[in-house]
Amino acid sequence: MMFERFTKDARAVVEGAVLQAERAGAETVEAEHMLLALLDREGSRGSFALASLGLAGRRDSVERDLAEARRRGGLSRADADALSGLGIDLSEIVSRVEEAHGEGALDSGKGGGGGRRARRRPFAQGAKGVLTQSLRIALARRERHIGDEHLLMALTVRPGVLSEVLADHGVTHEAVTRVLYGGGGGVAEAG
């Protein structure tokens, strides 16, 4: 199994993501939970990259941006712009839905029932994709083990809200690669 290839720091991020999901009362572990768990880490390669790029201590800002994306039903700004190009005003739709059903009605991050459960939460497709992408990145770099830095890099290359939020905070694949490896470096195909 792939988890055997994870370093102690990468395992801690995955375990931290499960805790993040539990605290949020989410039904599944999402890629967002991995990002939040990465932001909680200290003394690892991933946390070093985040600190070097100025994201350490800015968790509140990241959480606000993620909450705003959830409020839009999980759509990125690029998605909202594409809809706008078709004459669809996403902010107007969100306002009408919230007017009818309450604030945060489109928030896809809320699980039903809340509270703690004894069972483990399954990993959502996006979170599984991050794990798979981190393996691809490690293999492309000819590294034997998957570290939390590979999880961070995977979050930066997968299209969508998380990579958009990270980029808004100056954390791109290129920037992380530069901080960790000192050069450019190719991107393993997002999948």
TrEMBL record:
Pfam families attached to this UniProt entry: Clp_N (PF02861)
Keyword Zinc attached: no
List each copy of the Clp R domain by range: 3-186
Species source reads: Streptomyces albiflavescens
List the residue ranges of the region (Disordered).
101-123
Taxonomy, top ranks, is: Bacteria, Bacillati, Actinomycetota, Actinomycetes, Kitasatosporales
Residues in a coiled coil are none
Q: Which UniProt keywords apply?
A: Repeat
InterPro entries registered for this protein in UniProt:
Clp_N_dom_sf, Clp_R_N
Identify this protein by name.
Peptidase
Instruction: Report the domain of life of the source organism.
Output: Bacteria
Gene3D superfamilies the record matches:
Clp, N-terminal domain
